[in-house]
Amino acid sequence: MFKLIVLCAAVCLVTAVVEVDRRSEEVRADGFDAEVSLNDGSSRQESGDVHGNIKGSFEWISPEGEHVRLEYVADENGYQPKGSVLPTPPPIPEAIVRALKWIENNPHEE
């Protein structure tokens, strides 16, 4: 029984191996470009400049089968990701919008 379990585990490991389809890295005096793509649909691309600013993206297939892609910028303003899977804040209620507009139009005088 133990040999059967070991054999099944070995077969699972062999079939679950993810391989690199494409990989490139270029470092220049004015920045860099890097890219890697795996055979499971995952990939990463990024480029950077001499000032430390980086733009890139990464993507993968979720367990539900959905194609997920995130793009980002990392610069002096911090890390700024964008993607449809990221949570977004709810809309500001209309009453709050009206109150803020009223406060803006009627400043407090001392």
From TrEMBL:
<dbReference type="Pfam" id="PF00379">
    <property type="entry name" value="Chitin_bind_4"/>
</dbReference>
<dbReference type="InterPro" id="IPR031311">
    <property type="entry name" value="CHIT_BIND_RR_consensus"/>
</dbReference>
<keyword id="KW-0732">Signal</keyword>
<protein>
    <submittedName>
        <fullName>Larval cuticle protein III/IV-like</fullName>
    </submittedName>
</protein>
<dbReference type="InterPro" id="IPR000618">
    <property type="entry name" value="Insect_cuticle"/>
</dbReference>
<dbReference type="GO" id="GO:0008010">
    <property type="term" value="F:structural constituent of chitin-based larval cuticle"/>
</dbReference>
<dbReference type="InterPro" id="IPR050468">
    <property type="entry name" value="Cuticle_Struct_Prot"/>
</dbReference>
<keyword id="KW-0193">Cuticle</keyword>
<dbReference type="GO" id="GO:0062129">
    <property type="term" value="C:chitin-based extracellular matrix"/>
</dbReference>
<feature type="signal peptide">
    <location>
        <begin position="1"/>
        <end position="16"/>
    </location>
</feature>
